[in-house]
Amino acid sequence: SNNTVYDNNANIYLDKASDIIVSNNLVYTTHRNKTGILLGIEAFSAFLTNHYIKNIYIFNNVILNTPTAISVWQGIYSALQNGYFININIEHNTIIGTRANGTAISFSYETSFGQPVPNVSFSALNIFVNIVRAHPDSLKNGKLIVTSLIPHPNLTAANNLWNINPTVIFN
């Protein structure tokens, strides 16, 4: 908390993390197109393992001029690893400006037959009371969230404020 972070490869990066609070940070880019806050699981292992991103609270951050402000990323898996994204709360953040036709919040993962691959699961994803301001051309045409599924499993989004009337929040 309480950091100024800019132009890093991933400005704030949580990999296989649990019980984390990311708050009161100023995150921005000046010349690099890098994500503001990245939550990812890179399951590099030859063993049967479970990896978690759970109990994550991202609140009261200011994220400026990034291609994606907050990204939840599956990473690389084999059939031996399981990834669990549980209880991720994104609340009361201010996201201003995006670059490279980015979006405010992105969920990136492989899908199979319209569902996340069998060894990745999501539960209790909450996106509440965030302020987003960017030109509509740079914000995936007004979308708050870009995700692989319509609708996204276990996602609740409410009371977010845009500078334009948003289109449907999912692509």
Keywords:
171 residues; mainly beta; 9-stranded parallel β-sheet; 5-stranded parallel β-sheet; 54% strand
> What is the share of helical residues?
under 10%
Inertia-based shape: globular
Could you tell me the radius of gyration in angstroms? 15 Å
Indicate the low-confidence ranges by residue numbers: none
Q: Report the portion of residues in β strands.
A: over 45%
Structural class by sheet pairing and helices: mainly beta
Enumerate how many helices there are, as a single number.
Answer: 0
- Topology, number of strands: 16
Q: Largest sheet, described in full? A: 9 strands, parallel
SSE order, one letter for each helix or strand: EEEEEEEEEEEEEEEE
Average pLDDT for all residues: 81
Structure notes:
The model has no long low-confidence stretch (mean pLDDT about 80). The strands form 3 sheets. Strands 1, 2, 4, 5, 7, 9, 13, 14 and 16 form a 9-stranded parallel β-sheet that branches. The chain has a 5-stranded parallel β-sheet with strand order 3-6-8-12-15, with no helix packed on it. The protein has a two-stranded antiparallel ribbon with strand order 10-11. Helices cover about 0% and strands about 55% of the residues. Strand 10 and strand 11 (about 115) form a beta hairpin. By secondary structure, the chain is an all-beta fold. The protein is globular, with a radius of gyration of 15 Å.
